[in-house]
Amino acid sequence: MSSGWGATGVRVAFDRTVALDDVTLVAVPGAVTAVVGGDGAGKTTLLRCLAGALAPQAGAVTGPGRKATGYFPAGSGTYPDLTVAENLAFRAAAYRLRGAAMTRRADELVELAGLTAARDRLAGQLSGGMRQKLGVIAAMLHRPDLLVLDEPSTGVDPVSRSGLWWLIARAAADGAAVVLATTYLDDAQRASSVLVLDEGRQLAAGTPEQIVAAMPGSVATVPAAPTGPAARLAWRRAGSWRVWSPSPNAAAPAADLQDAVTVAALEREVELTGAAAPVSAPAMPPTRRPPAAGPLAECADVTCRFGHLTAVREVSIQVRAGEVVGLLGANGAGKTTLIRTLLGLQRASSGDVRLLGEPPSRQTRKRIGYVPQGLGLYDDLTPAENMEFAAAAFGTAPGYLPEDIARRRGVPVGALPLGLQRRTAFAQALAHEPDLLILDEPTSGVDPLGRARLWDTIALAAMSGAGVLVSTHYMEEASECDRLIVMAGGAVVAAGTVAEIIGDAQVTVVQADDWAAAFDRLERAGLQPALAGTSLRVPGAAPDAVRAALQAAPVVRARLEVTAASLEERFFELAAGDRTQGGTVSEATTVSEASTA
């Protein structure tokens, strides 16, 4: 087996657009390499080169050949009108794989992906997470030496992402070199090495620790948004602001991967536009309004049934003026049904729904700003024309459009980078100064710096007195919310701050001399290790159980450490619990009580 494959000094251009410029990547067998960047960064182009689907104009690409490469393209690469079993059979035929061994391999992967009960369902009828897992196991079917995955986790809920990473770790443990593209930095932190791209150029590369160590200058945390020149070098994170200084400061707190990647993007932005250039203004300057007397949105013991299916079960939530409430849940948890019921687009089977103090109606919806996951913009209209259209619908004057978007006159929304499209959608939703802002996956596909600036806009809306309800799959964004509501099986299973929901939940961390051997041993013991670089994290398992699994002959040498669980790990425990009991959880409920609700 090769010591590694990858790309060296690769350049790709489409007409006058440079998609990749002098990019280098190394993929090592038995390890995961993450390619990180927002929409338009060049991730897909690089992965297509690695998979042999695109030849670069300059540089070199090495690999094991197409027959030994597994490729998962953006969109999963599955056929919607074939069943799960038929998709795998088609892929096996393409690689000329036959016989009992291949049948056993397909059955093994279907079971690992949790698709056994769905093997005879059409791929087009699967949930987004299930379809992504089908695409990944199809790419793994022939045991490739190089596995190339183009954004397998984008837009997928955390429970499905956990399942995807189980499959990715399984492929790496079997010896494959895995390269995956992602917009999520918590995905990158699970990888052994990371390549950060921005507009086709390499911003940073190395292990997460190396990237952090190479970060120039220092980062400080301040409680309020800075003004003047410092505003150019600041971004919002976890309810406060980070400010980068190009000068080192030994007294500054330690940075992490998210800080380092954001600083790399800022450094490039300053290089391209000049340090004196003003930072982009938010979509809506804050305008103070009188505080509302009661909740802006409220559900009391709401249940929604569709025939024999109960999509929402006795849910009680509130959103008040000036607060940001995060709504978390796996696909099918009931989030969308709850939002539609709250907006009056769907009638509750029982319970009470109040929107701005009265039953939902067209009049109350006029006081709401909404950013759907699909943005709700017209691609063939310019940003200004979209703003004019929305103003006519609401009977108001066209709202404020950020300068860097407004000056792109004549450019239709569909031709703008995703970050500018999302900021346009925010500007449109905020133009009529809504009392309540509802956001569905508002930052999906956006790079870390762009994501931070969108959250600055959200925070400004809340500061102006608006209430905000945010549905998100990105766990890092949960720290931007004042409160979280976690749903599973149609019920609220936890509510409160991030710290309250995590509580005293712990995870056992395994540092093994041979992580792949440790992964195999823990998997056989019925535990669920999650790959984090070359470490394994085992949530929901006592250290004694982990130690016993590793000490079974032949012994796997490892060091164990117990540490606090992450929000994603706690979320997975909650979402994977008993979803049939229902019930509600009050804001003051403790995590231990929430887990039994």
Can you walk me through this structure?
The protein is built from 19 helices and 25 strands. Helix 5 crosses helix 16 and helix 13 (about 420-430) packs parallel to helix 14. Mean pLDDT is about 85; it is low at about 275-285 and about 580-595. The protein folds into 4 domains: about 5-210, P-loop containing nucleotide triphosphate hydrolases (Rossmann fold), CATH 3.40.50.300; about 215-275, no CATH class; about 295-500, P-loop containing nucleotide triphosphate hydrolases (Rossmann fold); about 505-565, 2-Layer Sandwich (Alpha-Beta Plaits). Helices cover about 30% and strands about 25% of the residues. The strands form 6 sheets. A 6-stranded mixed β-sheet has the order 5-6-7-3-8-9, sandwiched between helices. Strands 17-18-19-15-20-21 form a 6-stranded mixed β-sheet. The protein is globular and about 70 Å long. A hairpin with a 2-residue loop joins strand 13 and strand 14. With about 600 residues, the protein is α/β, with parallel strands linked by helices.
Topology at a glance:
Blueprint: E1 5-14, E2 17-27, E3 32-36, H1 43-50, E4 58-62, E5 69-72, H2 84-94, H3 99-112, H4 128-140, E6 146-150, H5 158-173, E7 177-182, H6 185-188, E8 193-198, E9 201-206, H7 208-213, E10 218-222, E11 234-237, E12 240-245, H8 257-273, E13 297-306, E14 309-319, E15 324-329, H9 335-342, E16 350-355, H10 362-365, E17 368-371, H11 383-394, H12 403-406, H13 418-430, E18 436-440, H14 448-463, E19 467-471, E20 483-488, E21 491-496, H15 498-502, E22 506-512, H16 515-524, E23 530-532, E24 535-539, H17 543-551, E25 558-564, H18 567-575, H19 591-595
Parallel strand pairs: 3-7, 3-8, 5-6, 6-7, 15-19, 15-20, 17-18, 18-19
Antiparallel strand pairs: 1-2, 1-4, 8-9, 10-12, 11-12, 13-14, 13-16, 20-21, 22-24, 22-25, 23-24
Helix pairs in contact: 2-4, 4-5, 5-16, 11-13, 13-14
